[in-house]
């Protein structure tokens, strides 16, 4: 079936069909508001309500087609009624024309520079310019504003007073949007194609080798505190989810994020006792904000076995390190950095900007007393065929934190970048660390000393 709405080429965008879908959407929305007043707002993704809306859309489309035929007008091409109905549902409950990309399992990133210009990056590295994703910038803003009202733990505004939006979509994808500070509204959606996986799955994908998977799994089970570092889109969240899969189901987990993304609380079989906490922006009066730092402090009173911070972005680094050093062993977080050694500089930069204004020596003492391992994920580019650049994500370095010495962090790079781009064994583990990991399933003697990619 040829896509009527928003095919990869702009020429495939059928304005007539799109307008018909918009008209039917308005009719269905009005019927829902009249007959199901509770169907608006944050419960519009209710399964029963979707069924009602689908039936209303089908009947409205039939009426339109019958009327057009009676009037002698040319109806939309035959056989596309189902697809028009799906577009109506996407307009009512999803992201309109963008929804088809969110639903595509091969799409990795969606970047929108205004209503008429967008780009889609696929898992194999292909990047395509796609047709219009809304009829106008105002309509695109309305679509994103509606998503902010429906999804997430609390309604999030998207307007001139609050021109930034970060949001988790129902499938776990992360949406980021800005307006007013750019000529056109800009929307970026990062899809998480690997949302339910273990370390063994990442071995199959080539992100790490078998020994490194055994090492990291043992570190999690031994309740070592881990900090996952890397550049943007390097696979930090993917690795963090896989590491969390090693946590025993009997433990209570609290996850803390700027916008919900990890989704561990949805994996009830794997993590039956998991609480997901999301930072909150201020309301229209400028009050009611809840920061990541506040949530980290709150987690200390929630009887959590482990605290997982989705992404360290600023002054929450101090309460996070305090949590790790105050009995929350086995906690984890991600942070942006260009190398495993660069993590310590990044933490120091955040710490000096925090309300505590910690000097470097004090920050390093805190790091040495809280973080056991830094795991760095790198991303390279491979070109499997002409015109296609495929990102290759690999765990390139694991650094064990040993101690602090004034302005320096003493650490050993126990896995270092190898000649093939992946990790190979580096400095030996400390005896106490090797013993603890050995009790949790890691024995380096089982693996080839030269193991790498």
Q: Figure out the total of helices.
A: 13
Structural class, from secondary structure content?
A: alpha/beta
Main sheet overview:
9 strands, mixed
The dominant shape is elongated
| N-C termini distance | 42 Å
Q: Whole-number average pLDDT? A: 84
Strand segment tally: 15
**Which CATH-level-2 architecture of the largest domain?**
3-Layer(aba) Sandwich
Radius of gyration, CA atoms, in whole angstroms: 25 Å
Q: What is the helix content? A: 25-40%
Low-confidence stretches: 1-12, 40-45
SSE string, helix = H, strand = E? HHHHEEEHEEEHHEHEEHEHEHHEEEEH
Which sequence of strands runs across the widest sheet?
A: 9-8-10-11-7-12-13-14-15
CATH fold call of the largest domain: Rossmann fold
Number of domains: 3
Give a structural overview:
This protein has 453 residues and is of the alpha/beta class. It has 3 domains: 1-93, no CATH class; 104-193, 2-Layer Sandwich (Beta-Lactamase); 199-446, P-loop containing nucleotide triphosphate hydrolases (Rossmann fold), CATH 3.40.50.300. The chain is 33% helix and 23% strand. The chain has 13 helices and 15 strands. The chain has helices at residues 15-35, 47-71, 81-93, 99-102, 137-150, 199-204, 210-221, 236-244, 292-299, 317-325, 342-353, 360-368, 431-438; strands spanning 107-113, 118-122, 127-130, 164-168, 174-178, 186-190, 226-230, 253-257, 274-278, 306-312, 332-336, 373-385, 388-405, 408-417, 423-425. It has a 9-stranded mixed sheet with strand order 9-8-10-11-7-12-13-14-15, with helices on both faces. A hairpin with a 5-residue loop joins strand 4 (164-168) and strand 5. Helix 1 packs across helix 2, helix 1 crosses helix 3 and helix 11 (342-353) crosses helix 12. The longest helix is centred in the N-terminal third of the chain and has 25 residues, at 47-71. It is elongated and about 85 Å long. Mean pLDDT is 84; it is low at 1-12 and 40-45.
């Amino acid at each position: 079936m040829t896509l009527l709405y928003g095919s990869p080429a702009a020429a495939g965008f059928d304005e007539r069909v799109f307008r018909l879908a918009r008209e039917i959407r308005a009719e269905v929305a009005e019927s829902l508001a009249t007959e199901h007043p509770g169907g608006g707002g944050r419960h519009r993704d209710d399964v029963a309500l979707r069924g009602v809306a689908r039936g209303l859309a089908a009947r409205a489309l039939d009426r339109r087609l019958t009327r057009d035929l009676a009037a002698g007008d040319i109806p939309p091409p035959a056989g596309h009624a189902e697809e028009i109905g799906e577009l109506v549902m996407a307009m009512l409950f999803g992201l309109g024309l963008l929804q088809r990309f969110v639903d595509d399992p091969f799409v990795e990133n969606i970047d929108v520079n205004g209503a008429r210009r967008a780009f889609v990056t696929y898992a194999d590295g292909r990047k395509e310019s796609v047709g219009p994703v809304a009829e106008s910038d105002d309509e695109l803003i309305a679509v994103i504003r509606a998503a902010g009202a429906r999804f997430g733990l609390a309604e999030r505004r998207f307007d001139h007073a609050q021109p930034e939006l970060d949001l988790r979509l129902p499938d776990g994808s992360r949406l980021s949007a800005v307006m007013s500070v750019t000529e056109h509204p800009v929307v970026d959606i990062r899809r998480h194609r690997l949302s339910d996986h273990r370390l063994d799955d990442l071995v199959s994908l080539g992100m790490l080798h078998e020994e490194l998977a055994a090492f990291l799994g043992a570190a999690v089970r031994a309740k070592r505190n881990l900090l996952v570092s890397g550049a943007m889109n390097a696979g930090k969240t993917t690795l963090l989810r896989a590491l969390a899969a090693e946590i025993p189901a009997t433990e209570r987990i609290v996850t803390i994020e700027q916008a919900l993304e990890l989704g561990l609380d949805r994996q009830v079989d794997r993590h039956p006792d998991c609480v997901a906490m999301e930072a909150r922006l201020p309301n229209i009066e400028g009050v009611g904000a809840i920061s990541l730092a506040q949530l980290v402090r709150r987690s200390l009173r929630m009887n959590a076995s482990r605290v997982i911070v989705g992404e360290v972005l600023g002054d929450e680094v101090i309460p996070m390190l305090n949590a790790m050093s105050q009995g929350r062993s086995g906690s984890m977080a991600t942070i942006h950095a260009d190398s495993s050694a660069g993590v310590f500089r990044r933490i120091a930069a955040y710490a000096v900007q925090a309300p505590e204004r910690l000097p470097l020596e004090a920050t390093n003492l805190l790091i040495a007393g809280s973080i056991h391992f830094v795991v760095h994920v790198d991303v390279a580019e491979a070109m499997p065929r002409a015109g296609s650049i495929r990102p290759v994500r690999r765990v390139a370095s694991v650094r064990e934190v040993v101690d602090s010495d004034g302005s320096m962090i003493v650490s050993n790079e126990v896995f270092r970048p190898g000649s093939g781009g992946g990790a190979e064994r580096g400095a030996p583990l400390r005896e106490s660390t090797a013993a603890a990991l050995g009790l949790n399933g890691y024995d380096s003697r089982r693996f080839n000393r030269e193991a790498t990619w």
